[in-house]
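WARN retry 2 of 3 for item q-0093 after timeout on previous attempt; input resubmitted unchanged.
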Amino acid sequence: MPNEQATASDSPFIQGRNARLYGKPKSECPYQEGSEDYAAWMQAYDEAQQSDPAHTIQ
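OK item q-0093 returned
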């Protein structure tokens, strides 16, 4: 039986943050709307947008 351990980069939160930082659209969220993973992905995406001054609308 292989030892499968999830890493931090596997978390929906980290995936959402990275998606935003790499310029991917929100529509690329791989999780089902309404799920906890979807909520975490969207939260991280939005937080990355707000904390990235290069992408802030002025």
